[in-house]
């Protein structure tokens, strides 16, 4: 097979109405928002953005504390060689230089608070870098984002580029060929209209929205895709009359070193034009910008807003920094509602894929209802829980309105999902800065509901005693030194001898010493229960006549019951 690889010429884009021109690097920076979308959540956390997320980043600078500052306006400064609280003086110095943002490695919450205060005071965005992130990796991603922004610096991309179908039609006019644009999975994203007769390959690709696998396998075997992924070179593919395939040319679409897709041009009746190669190279660059923008707008940008909400819920970013991008007034009251599927053993759903599907359906249902209640509502998922932030609340009757929304959601879920939903409503807080307080309370309420499978919606007033009990048990669980070792001795005796003294003692205490009611609950004779309680006191040595000791024993036996594995039903 005779393959002809055309070497790329100077990068020029010829529009239909004007001659080509050499692209010149612009001085336009990338908005901090777009840079964060490009870099991605796993690398950095936004800790402060006092100037908002539209500030422009023009360059990426590495700052070593041992060297002179060397930073200027519009820089993203990566502070290496120091981390945490010790970087506070550098953050202040960088802020005075007019830099747009500073990135520091952060290990502890206390360090994050000190750095955030310095950044807000200096009016500079602060990015917290995860401890395990390599600086060279972060620098590479950030520089790529800045360089990609320069490609679009001379024009408004949204107005100039149009959509992919318009681009395909323009390329067809310039090359006098028949055009299709595919992604990296060989799915057809757009194609040109044509009066020419198309070959079998194009017909099958358009009908199936993807090239036939037999032909794709040949292209892979011939190394065509490897060449297209390798850089900006136009690849010519000779005709295969035996397969009903005409001559083609193609160019890869790239964002830096990352492949995004391919533009294919089938030769028409008149043959391909003289400037087809140059037009294809320019078209590939334009297509890259369109695909990046589509990806950002359709998936990554919304996820960026969700990440901001997560940062707000977890106290990693202040309310004022997040407000503009979540569309809220930071000075108005807000509330957090947290929802989750009811415990699995009571739903009949056990397959992992079923559970994931249920969670996805639950999140979608919650998002629709929240948006209908408040345009500025935001929804995000953390673990198995879905959090709803409702900002800009009215001054009156906010609590009843939010309770009504939560009840509306769980009622809808009861009809649409197999599992059903439980909701915990945090208290209304005065400003966005107080949102973490509402979130913590909502989580505690939902924790309390976890032991009541009939409950659906609750506020702190509904479950205050259960929340208090849950908090006390959490303290006991996390502080082994305050536990009474005598009760561990009692449980060890039960385990070694097959007795149920600890369980019987807890039931006796829960019924306030009412032997008859407790024995009915345990399905034993009252005398049997009296014997077990007496033996439990003898083995452990606890004084059941002391009210404080009775309370302590009951709490610790409750903790043991919570941590024991539940028997399978």
Automatic annotation (TrEMBL):
Residues 321-447 form the CdaR GGDEF-like domain. InterPro entries: CdaR-like_regulators (IPR051448), CdaR_GGDEF (IPR041522), PucR_C-HTH_dom (IPR025736), PucR_C-HTH_sf (IPR042070). Gene3D superfamilies: PucR C-terminal helix-turn-helix domain. Signal peptide: none annotated. Residues 503-558 form the PucR C-terminal helix-turn-helix domain. It holds the Pfam family HTH_30. Belongs to the CdaR family. PANTHER family: CARBOHYDRATE DIACID REGULATOR (PTHR33744), CONSERVED PROTEIN (PTHR33744:SF17). This is Sugar diacid utilization regulator. It comes from Actinopolyspora mzabensis. The lineage of its organism: Bacteria, Bacillati, Actinomycetota, Actinomycetes, Actinopolysporales.
